[in-house]
Structures are given as C-alpha cells and as structure tokens.
UniProtKB/TrEMBL annotation:
Domain Thiol:disulfide interchange protein DsbD N-terminal: 51-157
Keywords associated with the record: Signal
Species of origin: Consotaella salsifontis
Record protein name field: Thiol-disulfide interchange protein, contains DsbC and DsbD domains
Source taxon at top rank: Bacteria
Signal peptide region: 1-29
Entry keyword annotation includes Signal: yes
Amino acid sequence: MRTRIAASALIGAALALSSSLWSLGAANAAGSSTFETDGVALSLVAAPSGTGDAVRAALFIDLEPGWKTYWIDPGEAGIPPQIGLSPETKNLELESIAFPAPTRFEEAGFQSNGYKAPLAVALSLRKTKPDSGSNLALSVMLGICHDICVPVSAELSLDPAGETDKAAVDTAFADLPRRDSAAEAITEASIRADGSKLSLKVAASAAGDSSDLFVTAPGGWYFGPPEDTARTGGEVVFTLPVLDKPKEGLSSLLNVDAILVTGEDAIEARDLAVVREPK
C-alpha cells in the first residue's frame, strides 16, 4: 500500500540544505506586503473594504518556471502550506482560506498534488470593529521544489485601507472552484470500517471520463488519487486510498472537502459529512 512521506521529514531534509536561506527570508519579509527569493515571489493584496465589516484579500504566489508548490493535501510527498494570521494583525478575523484547484504531478515515483504555475490564495476576513482601522499580517510557510525542496517562510503585512487592488483580488476569487453548496455534484462520502479507503459519490452529469477528485480533511488525514472509478446508474463512485491518518482513527474523520476537476472546470464541496461503512 502506498503511504505518505511525513511532511516533518521533508521539511527537516530541506532545512538541512537551506536553513540559512530560510531564516534570511523570514527576516527580510517582515513588515512588507511582498517577499522574493529563489523560485518564488509572494505578494499580499487587499480589496477596498467599503462600509461593511467584510474584507477580501489574496496571497499571490508567483512561481518561477520549473518550480512547484503544494496543495493543502500534498499527496504522497510534499510540504503542505501553512498560512494564517500573525499576532501583528489588528481588528481582523480570518473566516476562510481558499485555494484554486490543484493538479497532480510525479516526483521520484511519488504522486503529489499542487501547482506548477503562479496561483493566488483567496482570503476572506471580517473586521471585529467595523468602524475602526485594521492591519493584516500573514504568516506563510510554503514548500517549493525544483531540483531540491526548499521551505520558504515569510511574514507579510498591509493596511487594508491603504493601497488596494480590487481587480487582482477579484481575479483570485474568480479562479476558485465553483461551490457545490447544495451537494448536487458531490453527494456523499463514506469511509471503510478499517479506515483504508474513502469513497465519494458524484452525480454522473458532473463527472466525465477524465474527471479527477482531490480530497482533504483536517487533523492529519491524507488521501491518494482515485484508485477506482465505478459508474452505476446516475452516479460515479470514486474510491481513494487513505495514505495517512491520525492515531485517533475513524472517530476523528467527520467531514471532508472535495474538488472535482474535469478539464478546465472545477467544483468544490465543503464540509461533506463522512459516513462509516459497515464491516
């Protein structure tokens, strides 16, 4: 059975090769909305906040040709991104982080999920005090790979009321998968009693012969690419192997997020309840 290489092992190996570069990058990025190092440039952009309490922003990850980075579930090998608010943030709460649909690629015989071209991560925030000023400070850790893998750490910040770029942020949100809010495309998720396989049912009208399914769950669950796809009546069942899971086992798997990719189209289901299959 294929298993996942622990992210901690990958980070440790990369740090052994590039610790000085990583530390320098983190220090240089503090207090700025941009950061650049070999392989990638990062920029934090906000849209005008208007009169309400909602704030939209985006983290642009501009990969140089030949470099790649990883999705939330990086696959059999890869470093998952870590993005969150740092303590310097003022009067803002993070409501959601959304990534564009990933692709699959092979690295040294392992299947990974991620990106081989520039991308933007969409950030939805809310002011805790709508009439007060705010500061957005973001902590970012990404794994980027070319001939070797390098962890990139950066601290980015900006004033959302200052310089803004609505068009850029709108583009970041427009590039996200369509939301399957009514569960009309991705309809059901179930886990085998032994925790080895996850199955998702997709409406046949939404899945083509070349469709792929990416799944992520919190708490240390990782899934491989679909091993089997069965079309029965009006549904297509995708079966994915479980590459890694937490020691708490099945009791910790309550919901999954899934992205169905068909050509250039992508649709996402969030917080899909997972049913445990009978033995």
